[in-house]
Amino acid sequence: MPFKKGKPKTGGRTKGTINRTTKEAREVLDKILFAEIDNIEGALKAVKKKSDMAYLETLSKLLTYSLPKKSDITTGGEKINITFTRNGSEN
After folding, report:
1. Per the domain annotation, does 62 fall within a domain?
2. Burial state string for 20-40 with b = 16 or more CB within 10 A and e = fewer than 16
3. For residue range 19-68, what is the model confidence (pLDDT) as tens digits?
4. What is the separation of C-alpha 77 from the centre of its chain, rounded to a whole number of angstroms?
5. Which one of 40, 46, 72, 88 has the minimum C-beta count within 10 Å?
6. What is the pLDDT of residues 4-22, one digit of tens each?
7. Is there a domain that residue 28 lies in?
8. Phi, psi of 86 (to 5 degrees)
9. What are the phi and psi torsion angles at 26 (to 5°)?
10. Is residue 31 part of a domain?
């Protein structure tokens, strides 16, 4: 029976459900990383001693794995200008 346009989906995974293999791989990696937490902290401290810039670059790369990426849902694509002030001067 061919698929008819407009027919609701039946069977299979529900939308957003993670593939079982992906889920298992993430669980294994989480266990490995958790066991290595002390070594990771030590390595980050060593990077910071050598170069603050390298430390920040490393942190920014690691954060992509723990923080979700933000998407614009309020401005309709228009740019937002944000100005920070510190000790009374604009930066």
Report:
1. yes
2. eeeeeeeeeeeeeeeeeeeee
3. 888 889 989 988 998 899 889 899 999 999 999 999 999 999 888 877 77
4. 21
5. 88
6. 788 776 777 777 787 888 8
7. yes
8. -135, 120
9. -65, -40
10. yes
